[in-house]
Amino acid sequence: MSIWVLRGLRDGVVTTRWPAKPDAYADAWRGPVVASTSANPIDPMPLCPTGAISAEPLRVDQGRCILCGRCVAERPDLFAWSQGATGPGAAALTREALIVPEETDEAVKAARARLRERTAALRRSVHVRHVDTGSDGSEEWEIQALLGPVYDIHRLGVFFTASPRHADVLLVTGAGAGGMAGPLRTTYDGMPDPKVVIAVGTDAVSGGLLSESEAVTGGIAAVVPVDVWLPGSPPSPFGILNALLIAVGKLGNGGRGTR
Amino acid sequence: MMITQPTVTALWKELQSRVGAGDRFAGLFATRPEGGALVLSAHVAVKGEGEAGRGIDTLEAPLPPGAASYPALTPRLGAAFWYEREIHDRFGVVPEGHPRLAPLIRAGSVEGHALPRHVAGYGIFTIPHGPVRSGVMESIEYLVETPGEAIPHLNMRVFYKHRGVENRFAGMTAADGVLLAERAEGIASVAHALAFSHAVETIAGCEPPPAAALVRVLHAELERIANHLDVAVKLADAAGLAVATARLALHKERVLRLVSRLCGSRFGRGVVVPGGVSALPRPPPAEILTEVDKLGRAVTGEAAALMATSSFLDRLRGTGPLSPGRAHQHGALGPVGKAAGYADDARLARPYDGYLPLAVPPVRRHAAGDALARLRVRWDEVDQSLGLLRQVTEDLAERSPDLARVTCEPVRGRAVGWAEAPQGEVIYDVTLDAGRIVRCHPRSASFHNLVLMHEVFAGDILTDFPFIEASFGLSVAGVAL
Fold it and tell me: How many other C-beta atoms lie within 10 A of the C-beta of residue B294?
């Protein structure tokens, strides 16, 4: 066993300092696409497999963007990747804010105030429960990464719990598979108030590529009320961490983001 | 090659004789062409020497129009057990003589939370575990029948996260289809995109440029290392080795970060497209080689330390054994098969892309079939992948700038594509018409292998469960497509 004591010291501290200090990997993260102009000289339909682009004015619904990059490759003059996995803009407090960020300031402020009121008691220590409602499996990897040495959410007072009875935050992944609607609802109902729900990934936000499948509800909002919307296919661990901190109001000014 | 038989009985006879002669049963599915009768299609991996024998054959037979049933294949060929249940779920047609026709991928008429009992005896009870499980896991329900410690019977309900992926393919273009294939089983995105693209490229009659073929290998092997490290993390975690868990998780994170440096996605998404790759890697090959070498040293050292930790090995040795006989009979795929002496690696047997010129070194033979052998196979495969990565990056460095892709505009036709995912072989059977997908049937290694978990609990107890589940290394997403 002693070999592990030494091995554990090998690389020194590998844990990110974020949110106290900026993190280069988080800041360089390539997020969902944004339209760089609202002028509309194109027919957006063939450019996007999920129909995330709307014309007049030209907009990208980040909640439907699966980051395939086709629009950026075809029309770099109109579309660009967003930069950075963290910051207040990397996850939204209303579904509309993922579509028209600039026009929903008031609604977002109201949503933030409501969330703050509800989660005032959660700021010291938070327990999280995860439910998969038909993910592709990659979101689970990224959430598991938070427990690893690089992200180490325990340092922020966030813990995963097996029982919904102990949970404050519900992380939901997947497009809302019909078979999971019941178990998701039961889990949600089993959680004590106050509770916060985070839709993790484009699938959970809108259903993504599967939104038209008859086997899914096309996002989890059809089953439980969502408080924080996090796009990405899948979102990065930093994005998930950022969304968690936004959800419980623990994100200070250190959480830098360029969006 | 495509072979059509006049009746289902003739199809089963042909299948049995091929499997008896050494071919491997690789899947069974049904389709209902518009307005026509149901057609049953089986895939068979041909055991052949040299180029001519390589490939996957499709054997088909139509059912009589309006038929509500057909003679089941499962009594003759046990590996068809789940496949026939899936067909029953999708089309309602009854395989006569099937031993247990419970719903598999669609919930159907399962009543509430009834707990089926297969074992009778004093004090036997059923522990329902899932679909919302402790920890961060994919949704699946295990029904463990137990007198307290031993596990005489395990039952699984995999349908909870059925997403209708197969149906969703219909009507898509090949360019959109590859994006959905990447999301069929997200932890094996590259392998699924490859299998899908291979089928599409066969239909279009195009071949990716040499540099693209190498970049495909680069991403596929990085994906393999990440998956095998993930299994090692879960095994070390199950054994309570906190430092080993953290160290292995760190290495896995390094692999994912390397992938994201190459292409922007931590899962290699958007790289593979029909006709090649979307772009060549961003960093120069020499830089990738340096990273691979660093990674290789770290992973190899950690693996050696883990395999010298006796308290860990004791938990794996003899746990969840799959007999070589059963592995062969079922045609077990990937590390699960290799650990039980049955190796049919698509990269060696039916090479594609850069694997043909690279010459994949075969891994050592294992036959114990237990969780320990499965982990040993994974470490061997990691070594093999590191070797391939070095070759690929060196080849890429020597190559003058090359095309990333060729035009691939398939119009009409049908083809089967395959690729070796970390879990084992993935197969896509794609039919296109007028440039759109008419039907696309994905078959993941997870679907083929997971059914074997019913059989490996002989002598094992409840606390062995996490080891056995992790050692299989499968993804539920790929099962309940």
Answer: 12
Q: What distance in Å separates the CA atoms of residue A41 and residue A56, rounded to the nearest whole number?
A: 9
Nearest CA in chain A to B267: A138
pLDDT in tens, B130-162: 899 989 999 999 999 999 899 999 999 999 999
Conformation bin of residue B108: beta by default, left when phi > 0, alpha when psi is -120 to 50: left
Give strand ranges (E) for B122-222. 125-129, 141-146, 153-157
Q: Is B152 exposed, middle or buried (0-12, 13-18, 19+ CB in 10 A)?
A: middle
The minimum CA-CA distance between B281 and chain A, rounded to whole Å, is 15
Residues 286-325 of B with CB under 8 A from A: 302, 305, 308-309, 311
- Contact check, Cβ <8 Å, B187/A162: no
Nearest to A7 among B184, B243, B278 (CB): B243
Strands B56-62 and B2-4: parallel
Identify each DSSP E strand in chain A by its residue range.
Answer: 30-35, 53-54, 59-60, 79-83, 126-132, 158-160, 169-173, 196-200, 228-230
B449 within 8 A of B423, measured Cβ to Cβ? yes
Considering only CB atoms, which chain A residues are within 8 Å of B252? 145, 148
Give yes or no for a contact between B378 and B335, defined as CB atoms under 8 angstroms apart: yes
**pLDDT tens-digit series, residues B74-124:** 999 999 999 999 999 999 999 999 998 888 988 755 555 566 678 888 889
Minimum Cα–Cα distance from B309: chain A residue: A1
Residue A255 pLDDT: 40
Low-confidence ranges of chain A (pLDDT < 50): 253-259
Do the Cβ atoms of B252 and A148 come within 8 Å? yes
* Beta-ladder partners of B95: B70
Taking the C-alpha atoms of residue B304 and residue A85, their distance in angstroms, rounded to an integer, is 35
Spatial separation of the C-alpha atoms in residues B457 and B370, rounded to whole Å: 11
The answer to whether the CB atoms of B163 and A66 lie below 8 A apart is no
A97 to chain B, closest Cα gap in Å: 24
Q: Is B315 helix (H, G, I), strand (E, B) or coil?
A: helix
| pLDDT given at position A254 | 40
Whole-prediction pTM: 0.96
Note whether ipTM > 0.85 here. Answer: yes
